[in-house]
Amino acid sequence: MRKINPARLPATTLHNITKTYGRGKSATHALNSINLDIRQGEVTSILGPNGAGKTTAIKLMLGLLQPTSGEVSLFGSKPHDPVARVRTGAMMQIAGLPDTLRVEELVRLFSSYYPAPLALDRILDIAGLWEVRSRVFGKLSGGQKQRVMFALAVCGDPDLLFLDEPTVGLDIETRRSFWAQIRRFIARGKTIILTTHYLEEADALSDRIVLIDKGEVKADGTPHEIKATTSTRCVSCITSIAAQTALEHPAVQDARVNRARLEIATSEAEAVVRHLLDLDPNLRDLEIVGAGIDEAFLQLTHDEAPNHSDLVS
């Protein structure tokens, strides 16, 4: 993981931003006076539960929405400034593309919108599209379509790239392949703003994680710093003790059996381990590790139980 350099200039900034939908008593405050700088040359994941305001923040940075109050800047200009916009690329979840155009035709079309696009061969290489370059978009698999969307987002060689859940719906192997493509782009010194409901993805790729909840920034730091905000520890072992039995101990926050291992979340690991050994002297393969990004997310957003479908909005 690259070390964050606070001296880097921001690629985009939200300054004292408030965004309100509706009026009067029916008004909804999506963002409440938030301040956020996305530094150049870093990968920043913006996470939040459903309705947290994360999507609103992204749309403001892209110039797709106007703030109720406050200022948004993109490379020191307004987001709709053409000079700033050509320096950005976006891979959004909702994007209609003609099914009848071939992959190569789509890439050439989108490349024509930029003054200095990457060469076609380079784009196909970055996105891993060589084998399907002549196939029509409508005949591609879901994973292949995701790679095309990525190719169109990077074809202008942007300095700032927005990736909105880029691996949603992909199997593990395809997702990890996509991570490799993203890392190659990162290696060129580009800035990436990532949203994902796969928290391990944010943990693996990010220099920085910003957690938004109820229209406010609840946490902002490296993945390590975010995980350090929770005192929860994970106790794992092979035992005959049932998860329901483990849950009877007052210090156990959660318990489940995963692939024959009992996994327990607790803030009092030593006491729980002593209790487990009392119940099962033959307990083996005991492990105690710090909480992961999932547990930190849940604690910071005060969720009662993991629900990965609700992690990002």
Q: Can you characterise this structure?
A:
- By secondary structure, this protein is α/β, with parallel strands linked by helices.
- Helix content is 30%, strand content 28%.
- It contains eleven helices and 13 strands.
- Strands 5-6-7-3-8-9 form a six-stranded mixed β-sheet, sandwiched between helices. A four-stranded antiparallel β-sheet has the order 11-12-10-13. The chain has a three-stranded antiparallel β-sheet with strand order 2-1-4, with helices on one face.
- Helix 4 crosses helix 5 (142-154).
- The protein is globular and about 70 Å long.
- Residues 1-7 and 303-313 have low confidence and may be disordered.
Furnish the topology, listing elements before pairings:
Layout lengths: L9 E12 L6 E12 L3 E5 L6 H9 L6 E6 L7 H4 L2 E4 L11 H9 L8 H8 L14 H13 L5 E5 L7 H15 L4 E5 L3 H7 L2 E6 L2 E6 L1 H5 L5 E6 L4 H4 L5 E7 L2 E6 L2 H11 L4 E7 L2 H9 L12
Parallel strand pairs: 3-7, 3-8, 5-6, 6-7
Antiparallel strand pairs: 1-2, 1-4, 8-9, 10-12, 10-13, 11-12
Task: Quickly list its features.
single chain; 6-stranded mixed β-sheet; disordered C terminus; 4-stranded antiparallel β-sheet; 313 residues; disordered N terminus; globular; alpha/beta
Order of helices and strands: EEEHEHEHHHEHEHEEHEHEEHEH
| Overall number of strands | 13
Q: Choose one word for the global shape.
A: globular
Total number of helices: 11
Helix content: 25-40%
The residue ranges in which pLDDT falls below 50 over 5 or more consecutive positions are 1-7, 303-313
